[in-house]
Design a protein that fits this description.
two-stranded antiparallel ribbon, 9 strands, 225 residues
Amino acid sequence: MENEEKIKGKFESYVIVHNIAKRHNVGTLARSATAFGVSELILVGRRDFNSFGSHGSTSHLSFRHFHSLSLARAFLKERDCDICGVEITDNAMPVNEHPFRKSTAFLLGNEGSGLSAKECEICDFFVYIPQYGGGTASLNVTVAASIVLHQFGVWAGFSERSREGNKFLVTEKPANQMRRKYCTETAESIAEERKERKESAANGFFFENGVEEAPSNLLDSLFDS
């Protein structure tokens, strides 16, 4: 049954972006997500980030936004997705052993502190990346994401992209790209966001005074309407 699903291409991968301290890492993460066949990059909390490092790959990637981890989890469970935390825990399994069962969303920890207790709560299982040298305690979050996403693609049987010369072929950008600073919001979601701002600083995604950050380099036209 599992082999049949791989042949039919039924397995999908997602990346959950939450509590990443260095916002430019998200642009580089988007580039890796595109390269390794990620279906959607899910932002939790803030809707904007620095696109530095994406090299235009964000035009080829679907983005989705949720105000909380619980909402993101509910969305993924509706799609019969496992949520995998990338963290060295007592019960974490080596990613090269491919402990996957179905479509999987990967949640990576903060660059300094790793996954929080709240983030660990929504994970179904954990993987870690074996290291063989003694010079560093951990990997950059975007490097770790690239390794994990590649391993999942190998397990899922994703088709390798065609090459031309010494590069992989890049598809044309979608014709319906429209520039906007944030994803389209409903009245209900705006009300929910305002409520969350008043209750807390939303794990650092918003300033405590309720004013959103307005970086000069925002990712535009990324989210589903």
